[in-house]
Specification:
It comes from Jeotgalicoccus nanhaiensis. This is M20/M25/M40 family metallo-hydrolase. The protein is α+β, with helices and mostly antiparallel strands. It has 14 helices and 19 strands. The chain has helices at 2-12, 14-25, 34-50, 115-136, 158-164, 166-169, 222-231, 254-262, 267-274, 283-291, 332-346, 368-381, 398-403, 429-450, and strands spanning 54-58, 65-70, 78-84, 104-106, 109-111, 142-148, 173-176, 188-190, 192-193, 195-204, 210-211, 297-303, 313-314, 317-326, 351-358, 361-362, 386-388, 408-410, 426-428. A hairpin with a 6-residue loop joins β1 and β2. The longest helix has 22 residues, at 115-136. It is globular, with a radius of gyration of 25 Å. The structure holds zinc ion (ZN). Zinc ion binds at residues 88, 117, 152, 420-421. The site of zinc ion has 5 residues, from loops.
Amino acid sequence: MTLEKMDDFILKHRDDYLNQLFNLLKIKSISTNEDEIRHCANVLKSEMETLGLDTQLIETGGNPVVYGELLNDKNRFTLLIYGHYDVQAVEPIELWDSNPFEPEIRDGRIYARGAGDNKGQLMAQLLGLKTYQALYGELPINVKFIFEGEEELGSVHLAEFVENHKALLEADLVYTSDGSSHNSGDPLILLGVRGVLILEMTAKGADFDNHSGNTGNIVPNPAWKLMRLLNTMRDDDGNVLVDGFYDKIRKPSDKEMELLKRLPYDQQDIAEKIGYEDLDMDGASYYHKLTMEPTFNIAGIESGYTGKNAKTIIPSTATVNMDIRLVADQDPEDVFKKIEEHVKEVDPSVTVTYKGAMRPSRTPAELEIVQAVTDAVAHAYGKEPLVQPSMPGSLPDYVWTEILNTPSIIMPYANFDQHNHSPNENLKVENFFAGIKCTCNLVRELGERNV
Ligand SMILES: [Zn+2]
């Protein structure tokens, strides 16, 4: 009954809801487009004010955060919802079938830059709240929204913002709808992310490239140096040999292992999608490797000459770029130090340069709130969501779990093929409305649990 009531209401307000989203989608809030960013933040602020949210723009070192809250009772549950109103650039524009800032519905999909990433998802959150208010009146929980304007730049000031506004942001749960739902179309709940450490190592030989005959056997070749070093860092089975690399890794719990086993796995389909037909492992190992194990990836190596014809030189430098995905509770700084120590011991002439990092996060699957959200999502969608203990990629989810010290759940509302960051970005209309219903039902069920 309750859920049908939501469906009816959303259906009745379909055009209104789409219009509200379209207003936001028309604003060219590309992260680097300062005027449009400010305009978008202000439009969002007034949208939130009409919902009765106490809203403010808060300055950061870059684009402002739009923060809004609707507080009822300190003793009640507080939900903090995160999203971002900035969007990616649109190039190459000629590959779009319609204007990226003139939203258009074709074949049941809303086409526009930001449709899925992330304006459609954040509007679904706001309209979910609106739907709740229209159907039931006062909210049964406290709700806070934080919408940032720099996600597409790597959330440059988010950690600092959270650090400086801990009291304002205090909550029982952080809830994010960003990214895409599962390939199968099933709702997907993510309980964390892998972190990442990016670094560069450079070996040096002579001061400049040398003639390989005239100085062959005389000046050292840095490409060999670098390869020798790399071979001391990882064995043939993929185990990282850097002392202490695995020390801080949190062991997956029984519950997490069980969740991994439940995730759908079609080896042949995946093999085709990733262009690697030799893929040969069971689903549990596949997901374990993607969510519970760090990587030690060479992203690129550069040295000497690899062009057409021959150029007989001894290169003067060899450089490797590495990105190392980290899992809870590895610490990028600590791992970087350990790598430095390893290099110093094996070949002190090689320089190691830190290029950036993001910490991993993982909210324990055993928490009661995880089950409560899973149930609310299941009821809204009429099917059990897939629960993945971590996403293989990286997002700044640690700002919630570590800085704010609050559990965090990511529940993407957008379709798998939303083409975010690409031409013809889209959000299925049904996904938009399902998201609105999901937020509305989440607020309702969290409220019932509360009393
Ligand atoms: Zn994005």
